[in-house]
Write a structure and sequence with these properties.
Number of strands: 32
Largest sheet: 8 strands, parallel
Structural class: mainly beta
Distance between the termini: 39 Å
CATH architecture of the largest domain: 3 Solenoid
CATH class of the largest domain: Mainly Beta
CATH superfamily of the largest domain: Single-stranded right-handed beta-helix, Pectin lyase-like
CATH topology of the largest domain: Pectate Lyase C-like
């Protein structure tokens, strides 16, 4: 039986697939150093308040039967830098893009950028390899509603087609379907919220693109009726909430992920991406998908909730998670544990690299 693991400097998370030969419901037990530290029926557990850079030996049981064992080392305590030290106001009114980006750029290898409580209004931000981004409780990275705050455009993909898109709120890696990974080993976590510009940014981007694409749209004439609606073509370049392009070994955990201008977490040509213990929400956002591995492999999602629309609000077309199988030999994707969705799951959408 295979048990996977991931750690921060103070936590350890284990997850596994429910063995097919066992009953659908029973209680697991986890022992660390001969002491029972967790019991439950779900196929994942998280241990907290651990010591940094320390090896923990564990054993997983069902009733009295040992299923697996192993040892995992927590991450070393990182060098932390606060965005406040770079001038970020966090008052929800001041545009903090430059201050936040300065903090991200200054983060050393293995270091961690800390976002204290507050609301940090910002445009596109770019992360780099070998770093962590930690949001404290009540910390909100709030994307603006102005599409010009997400320029210049970058190469991305939308529903199987490569095109130039507005940058996402958080960006890591560069899109290259012929190249290897170019960004690695990033942890995005904490107890806060990453919230995009939502429906307003979505519509503002579409209106801007309608003007930029006026000649193209006019030339289509009645053919425009063949598309879903008149937002389809100008809506394709919208940015995401988080875009991971040509990335490896990235984990997103513990956060609220809300209101991207289109999809919320989009992985392109990436592998070994873990998303866990996150709460996804998109209010009235057209194509407001939660989680989209795109020509990617070994992407794991568990212990997450999906709420596509606030109660009483109109639900625009959206999906909790979509798994486009768009590469010649797409790798496995795992969806396990306690996954709650109030939107549909779409799996294996046909497409092609363009």
């Amino acid at each position: 039986m295979t048990v996977s693991s991931a750690s921060t400097s103070r936590t350890l998370t284990l997850w596994w697939e429910h063995p097919e030969m066992l009953p659908a419901s029973f209680e697991y037990s986890l022992y660390v150093d001969n002491s029972c530290v967790w019991t439950g029926e779900v196929t994942h557990c998280t241990l907290e308040n651990l010591s940094p850079d320390t090896v923990y030996t564990w054993r997983l049981f069902m009733d009295q039967n040992q299923l697996a064992d192993g040892a995992v080392r927590t991450r070393p305590a990182p060098v932390q830098i606060s965005v406040r030290d770079f001038g970020a106001a966090g008052d929800g009114k001041t545009l903090d893009t430059l201050s936040l980006q300065k903090a991200l750029d200054a983060c050393p290898e293995g270091g961690e950028v800390v976002v204290p409580g507050g609301t940090y209004l910002t445009g596109a931000l770019r992360l780099h390899s070998h770093m962590s981004l930690y949001l404290e409780e009540n910390a909100v990275i709030q994307g603006t509603e102005n599409p010009e705050d997400y320029l210049p455009k970058v190469l991305s993909r939308f529903e199987g087609t490569e095109l130039m898109c507005y940058q996402s709120l958080l960006n890591l890696g560069e899109t290259n379907h012929e190249g290897p990974a170019n960004a690695w080993d990033v942890l995005i976590y904490g107890k806060g919220t990453i919230r995009g510009g939502g429906q307003n940014l979505c519509l503002n981007t579409i209106e801007r693109e309608k003007e930029l694409q006026r000649e193209l749209l006019s030339s289509l004439g009645d053919k425009i009726k063949e598309y879903e609606n008149d937002h389809t073509i100008p809506g394709r370049p919208r940015g995401r909430l988080i875009q991971l392009a040509n990335c490896e070994r990235v984990r997103i955990t513990g956060l609220r992920l809300e209101n991207g201008a289109s999809w919320n977490v989009h992985m392109i040509y990436s592998s070994q991406i873990i998303t866990d213990h996150c709460a996804f929400s998109s209010e009235r956002v057209w194509n407001g998908d939660g989680w989209d591995p795109d020509s990617s492999e070994n992407c794991t999602l568990f212990a997450c909730t999906f709420a596509p629309s606030a109660p009483g609000m109109t639900r625009w077309p959206s999906r909790a998670a979509r798994i486009p199988r768009v590469s010649a030999s797409p790798g496995p994707h795992a969806i396990s544990g306690s996954l709650t969705a109030r939107a549909g799951l779409a799996w294996g959408l046909p497409s092609a690299v363009k």
